[in-house]
Design goal:
Helix content is 56%, strand content 0%. By secondary structure, it is mostly helical. α1 packs across α2 and α1 packs across α3.
Amino acid sequence: LSCLGCYVLVRFYVQSCYRQFRHLTMAVLNMPPIRFPVGVTQLAKLAAACHNKTEGTGLALGSDPCLPTFQQINVTCEHLPPGQPRPGFLAGFMGCMPGS
């Protein structure tokens, strides 16, 4: 049971970090460019707009700034925009909370 709990926590952590870097990559690739640093709430709004724009279109990853590839996300992870703080665990959920 403890192994399952550890797996769930690690999986949740990795998914949270990947999602935040994916949203940050959307902002990096966005046209017109977004000014950095950008906050969690603004990233969440951009991600929602991207979802609405690309849902059901059948576009391939990398064909639109809203659909970054793993390689593009990895570049953003390794080279954050100037002034942009590194995303933290669960930071992406703060933009979804009431009052944020």
